[in-house]
Description:
The chain is an all-alpha fold. Helix content is about 70%, strand content about 0%.
Amino acid sequence: MSLAAQGDRDALEELVRRRQSWLRGLFRRFSGNATLADDLSQRVFLKMWRRIRSLKEPTKFPGWLKQIAVNEWIDHQRKLARQKEEALGATEIVATAETPSIAMDLDQALSALPDETRLCVVLSYHERMTHTEIAALTGLPDGTVKSHIRRGSARLRELLLDYGEHT
């Protein structure tokens, strides 16, 4: 890590190699889209490359990188929301209900959750972060994080009920 902070290309490449599967997996869970996950991962690694000299404590690297990733996801969601608003203009939004099928997998079920809910659920269950850590990372109040996780978990249970045996 310290070599990477000094601009050592080989050290930076090694950091990318070690973290790319985790980061792509995180974004796939957020988005349900492998191509988007790859694009967002590249953006995060580019930001890591540019900002790594500002990281003073090498032991904080995993959390620092996770913060960049979550911020990238939030920025992406904001950009999408702005694009949707611009595209809709005066048109009404018509909601369509999706019927979950027996073959629906976890990523498909996650994609059915609202963005903030999906973010909190993935950080809680996939990244094993506490509610307090998620609140600090996302800027959401602790109670909101808990609500998102509770509602998201309940919705996932509903969507995956027919997927297989459950307890």
